[in-house]
Design a protein that fits this description.
The structure holds two protein chains of two kinds.
Chain A lengths: L2 H31 L11 E13 L7
Chain B lengths: L1 H35 L3 H4 L16 E5 L1 E8 L3 E3 L8 E5 L5 E7 L13 E7 L14 E2 L10 E7 L7 E9 L7 E13 L1
Antiparallel strand pairs in B: 1-4, 3-9, 4-9, 5-8, 5-10, 6-7, 6-9
């Protein structure tokens, strides 16, 4: 095989490698910018407080 | 020698053919993917996208937030079912139906107290009733101050303004050995979007 043929073959293989890697990189970039996910809406919580009050009365032992 | 040269040329042609096929295939594939994604960064074409998100709001309030029993003698009971004192009123101020759970801090310290000393129940206000799943009968108040122990007071409380409030009645039974004086319990109502 002549030297020029080997060079051409090597260049061709390099071309294929470049095409594959370039395509891969482009697709990665597209996937990075494409809106692919919608975040799930978190369950909403609301809290409020109230109060129960009283005055405990102990009856007088001397009362009838 | 000529045969060998022809073989080399064939190999070269095969490699080039594969390269062309890969080039065409990846180009078509890439263009196809770009067509479904965005072309703005490549073509300079300007497009705008307006995203509108309707956010649900979950909010409850207590138009009546204090149940004041006043003086109660030890060993006796009182409740709010007669509206004296007024019960809690829970209102859904949000835009979605909610489940309302309840928890409270301890009210009594007497040794003879038990869970039934402090109870709650759902009562209709706006709307016909308390939906199935609500506290339909007097239910022991969880007083461990642990939200994991919350109990449902009102199930599926609607957001519709004409039907968005329920009463939560409170019943207290003062233990016979309860020390006298002022008592207070903080009641926490938690609404979770359905």
């Amino acid at each position: 095989m002549e030297a020029r043929h080997r060079t051409i073959i090597l260049l061709t293989i390099l071309l294929m490698a470049l095409l594959l890697s370039g395509s891969y990189l482009v697709l990665q970039e597209i996937n990075a910018v494409a809106p692919t996910q919608i975040p799930a809406e978190p369950q909403m919580i609301s809290t409020t407080v109230g109060y129960v009050t009283m005055n405990v009365v102990i009856p007088d032992e001397g009362e009838p | 020698m000529e045969k060998r040269a022809a073989l080399t040329t064939n190999i070269l042609a095969m490699f080039l053919g594969v390269a062309i096929l890969i080039s065409i295939g990846t180009t078509v594939f890439t263009l196809d993917r770009l067509h479904t994604a965005s072309l703005t960064e490549i073509t300079g074409a300007v497009t705008g996208t307006a995203n509108v998100t309707i956010t649900n709001t979950t909010s409850i309030s207590l138009p009546n937030s204090t149940v004041a029993f006043g003086d109660i003698t030890i060993g006796t009971a009182n409740d709010t079912t007669d509206n004296n004192p007024l019960p809690f009123q829970v209102r859904n101020d949000g835009s979605v139906n909610v489940n309302v759970t309840i928890n409270a801090s301890a009210l009594f310290t007497g040794l003879t107290r038990n869970q039934s000393s402090y109870r709650f129940v759902c009562r209709a206000d706006e709307g016909g009733n308390c939906p199935t799943g609500s506290a339909a009968s007097l239910t022991d108040m969880p007083t461990a101050n642990d939200t994991l122990l919350n109990r449902t007071a009102v199930f599926d409380l609607p957001a519709d303004d004409s039907n968005d409030s329920r009463f939560v009645d409170i019943e207290v039974r003062v233990p016979s050995d309860e020390p006298g004086g002022a008592k207070s319990s903080t009641v926490t109502f938690t609404a979770a979007q359905i």
